[in-house]
């Protein structure tokens, strides 16, 4: 009997679905020219870090995006209702001044591009997608070694520790955001980001932060 595939929600198909790892992934290095020194590299997750998207209608979303998915016979449209994490616009504006910023998502490219067109209309922030992740143990992992740059200068901020499993010493695991309008995380972390932008080795600073918790 053929193995029955799981029934996926719209969000799982477009944003965060992972499948059993049955194939060997051939990794390609991410072009180093996307990184402009001397700024450090700040790699930001998208979903539940900067925004939260519901594929069920909601009344108080900040904006919506329409995603078209084609297969051999049909075209399906999915509407995502997007909540912006409080202070995200101000946070991104400051981070773009202090760092070279890349949004690295396990989501599909079409969805990410539509959301980032709203968050970054000047298109300063570069983007990497599900196809740039390393597929390991059934999960999409963000391996910072693929940037071919000094890891002492690279920060990954993500709500998922699994996504950061390759370089936990470079990672800031943030609380997941859904729709809490009183969330203050992006304001609370600004002082740490200022320190990281000026330090010699971000891993030593982050180790010190963990040791104080």
Task: Describe what you observe in this structure.
The protein has 213 residues and is α/β, with parallel strands linked by helices. The protein has one domain (14-211): Rossmann fold (3-Layer(aba) Sandwich), CATH 3.40.50. 24% of the residues lie in helices and 23% in strands. It has helices spanning 10-16, 88-98, 109-119, 185-188, 190-198, 202-211; strands at 41-44, 51-54, 63-70, 75-84, 100-104, 126-128, 134-136, 139-141, 154-158, 171-173. The strands form three sheets. Strands 6-5-1-9-10 form a five-stranded parallel beta sheet. Strands 2-4-3 form a three-stranded antiparallel beta sheet, covered by helices on one side. A two-stranded antiparallel ribbon has the order 7-8. A hairpin with a 4-residue loop joins strand 3 (63-70) and strand 4. The longest helix has 11 residues, at 88-98. The chain starts with 9 loop residues before the first helix and ends with a helix. The model is unreliable at 1-8 and 17-26 (pLDDT under 50). This is Nuclear LIM interactor-interacting factor. Pfam families: NIF.
């Amino acid at each position: 009997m053929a193995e029955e595939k799981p029934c996926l929600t719209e969000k799982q198909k477009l944003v965060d679905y992972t499948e059993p790892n049955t194939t060997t992934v051939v990794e390609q290095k991410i072009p180093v020219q996307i990184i402009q020194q001397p700024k450090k590299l700040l790699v930001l997750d998208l979903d539940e870090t900067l925004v939260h998207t519901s594929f069920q209608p909601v009344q108080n979303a900040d904006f919506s995006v329409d995603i078209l998915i084609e297969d051999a016979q049909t075209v399906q449209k999915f509407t995502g209702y997007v909540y912006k994490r409080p202070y995200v616009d101000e946070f991104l504006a400051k981070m773009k001044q202090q760092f070279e910023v890349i949004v690295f998502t396990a989501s599909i490219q079409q969805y990410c591009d539509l959301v980032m067109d709203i968050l970054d209309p000047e298109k300063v922030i570069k983007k990497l997608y599900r196809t740039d992740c390393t597929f390991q143990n059934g999960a999409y992992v963000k391996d910072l070694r693929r940037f071919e740059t000094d890891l002492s200068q690279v920060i990954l901020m993500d709500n998922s520790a699994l996504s950061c499993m390759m370089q936990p010493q470079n990672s800031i695991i943030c609380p997941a955001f859904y729709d809490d309008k009183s969330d203050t995380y992006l304001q609370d972390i600004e002082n740490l980001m200022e320190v990281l932008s000026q330090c010699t080795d971000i891993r030593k600073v982050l180790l010190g932060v963990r040791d104080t918790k």
